Amino acid sequence: VEHLNGIEDLSPRDIQIIFETADRFKEVINRPIKKVPSLRDITIANVFFENSTRTKLSFELAEKRLSADVVNFSAGSSSVKKGETLVDTVNNILSMKVDMVVMRHPNPGAAKFLSERVDARVINAGDGTHEHPTQALLDSYSIREKLGTVEGKKVVIVGDILHSRVALSNIYALQKQGAEVMVCGPSTLIPKYIHELGVKVENNLKKALEWCDVANMLRIQLERQDIQYFPSLREYTMLYGLDKELLNSLSKEIIVMHPGPINRGVEITSDVADSKQSIILNQVENGVAIRMAVIYLLAAKVER
Ligand code: CP
């Protein structure tokens, strides 16, 4: 692929190549000198129209570990506030000899829209409720690291599936690698099209957790909900919050994941998030190697 818009566009072989490349970069970033000179001739702009902690810093570190030059753009403090369009903004950045754009944007399809209108490689760092491809790659990579393989594993994604780009990208990524996928949550937060994706649906958290090897706990995305949703946060926690008592009541030891940011005490309690069954910080660590791999592989397509 020329750009990374979504996992939907990747083949199982593409994902395998990204993981094998990330394996090499994970070794690099665990050395005392955490850098390789591979992309000394490449300049990358991180263009963020939405807040981020993990994705933004992880991309910046990945770029620096590859020796690329990096510029960071936050829409809130930019001339977007004076009415400049997305395409004008990015074309102005590109005219400063930038080769690649990493973009987070609140609108679904924004990365694809941009990639069709500018002369640069575009990596989607999250486009509204659509996809968050590098998150899904680092999630699957973390499952592979912990369990040896993704193929044949049972993964449940719990929570606000309706508003989640992480859920959609994970569904595509897990299925392409031969995992079984279930979503679990209140029916008000599960999209009607979910059955077309070939995933199981379960409204009872305990049953879903008994079924799975891995539970990926999502945050309720209040910022994307324009109606008063049901259930309330308190009801949600009672029905879908994962606490230690529930985790310990299961007949086998499952792996617990979360893309972050966590709302402690809502979808997951601290004693679960910080338990030895949680791989939440491993996911964040792996994000740098995965993003190095994605950038490195796409940079091969930049004209030099
Ligand atoms: N997981 C994730 O995308 O986190 P940020 O919003 O902090 O980047």
TrEMBL record:
Span of domain Aspartate/ornithine carbamoyltransferase carbamoyl-P binding: 3-145
Catalytic activity: carbamoyl phosphate + L-aspartate = N-carbamoyl-L-aspartate + phosphate + H(+)
Positions of carbamoyl phosphate binding: 54-55, 104, 132, 135, 260-261
Involved pathway(s): Pyrimidine metabolism; UMP biosynthesis via de novo pathway; (S)-dihydroorotate from bicarbonate: step 2/3
GO biological process: 'de novo' pyrimidine nucleobase biosynthetic process; 'de novo' UMP biosynthetic process; amino acid metabolic process
Binding site for L-aspartate: 82, 165, 219
PROSITE patterns, alphabetized: CARBAMOYLTRANSFERASE (PS00097)
The Aspartate/ornithine carbamoyltransferase Asp/Orn-binding domain, residue ranges: 151-297
E.C. designation(s): 2.1.3.2
Principal EC category: transferase
Keyword field: Pyrimidine biosynthesis, Transferase
GO molecular function: amino acid binding; aspartate carbamoyltransferase activity
Similarity comment text for this entry: Belongs to the aspartate/ornithine carbamoyltransferase superfamily. ATCase family.
Subunit text: Heterododecamer (2C3:3R2) of six catalytic PyrB chains organized as two trimers (C3), and six regulatory PyrI chains organized as three dimers (R2).
Protein purpose: Catalyzes the condensation of carbamoyl phosphate and aspartate to form carbamoyl aspartate and inorganic phosphate, the committed step in the de novo pyrimidine nucleotide biosynthesis pathway.
Protein name: Aspartate carbamoyltransferase
Gene this chain is encoded by: pyrB
